[in-house]
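Input.
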Amino acid sequence: MATFNYTACDEHGSVTRGVSTAVDVYELRSTLDLRGLALVDARKVRELFPLSAKRHGPASRELAECLRYVALCTKAGLPLIQTLEDHAEQTPSKELATTLRHIVADVREGVSLSDAFARHPRQFDESLVHMIRAGELSGAVDIVLGRIAKQIEFQREIRACVVQALVYPAVVGTAVLGLVILLLTFVLPRLVGVMAKSGAKLPPITQALVDVSDFIIAHWPWLVGGLAAFAASFRFALAFPTFHLLASRVALSTPILSTVLNMSANARFSAALRTMLASGVEAVRSVRTAGEASGSSWFAERTRAASETIREGHTLSEALQPVSELHPLVRRMIQLGESTGQPDEALDTAITYFETEIPARVRRALSLLEPLMIGAAGLVCGTIVIAAVLPIFSLYDAIK
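Output.
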């Protein structure tokens, strides 16, 4: 998403200036059209430090609870303003409570609910605003809010599965690295140090590891600093779209984990697309926003190109046909939905499949990773231990 300073005018010629976030100028123009404004000029805000552009808003769990509460209460017949005020009083999030009070004040002044949410772009993304606006036009805001809450909860579950798949190798890898450093810098020097200082000839593998040990001990401040600098540089580089796109593409090609990551992107895309289409949002914006919600920059880039194809007059299934990352089931369900006229209901089948399949794939991936990582750790540590013991056996043979 990009931030734009825009100038627009209404049908009476009144000029309005403001700031809004959108994928590009075309989406900004569509957003303003829904508000009855014609875009005159738009300039993208150039950010010197992209990391500062990170959206700050309520946690997904808190937002889902809020939207579900408002949906249930308004469906029961309670006034919208009263519902928002009640939730602002009971939510444990001070930030969300403050934002809800600002929204209540705006709605009291006659501002629509979608426009009131849109005034807080750093708390609520454009997709939520678009869906609420579509719900207002259809007169089904409560239904739309319930769908959004369900989508957020589904995405939280998928994210938890992906985190589970990534945390295990990260923890084991860190533990193995620490053990290797301990063996090289503490155990090995003490076992073969006396022999090395006496000038005895060490086996080639032992000598090589002793050299590595001496290098680590002599230059550890530079090594730690270089590792920290690399991690900070990598994190900073991820804020730039080109590098983030490359990293996302590499992640989707990673052995074993690529299946889980790809299915996760498909699940999030399907859930967001289902919710937006069911809420009455146009197909072009739905595909763009669903791609952004996939959690993968590369997946989002591919679906963004598909949205332009829809703009040219192609159907949804035709536009998404070139997206090779799209799961076959999602593709078929979209085709089925177009033939029945209910693509959102057809996508429910794909979402139900992902709900059960992704946890199973995570367990399968971990069952493959566990023996591989244990085997690799055993090989590395065993090599170090053997290299440390070899000189002792050589000395014993010489004494005999």
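The first helix runs from residue 25 to 34.
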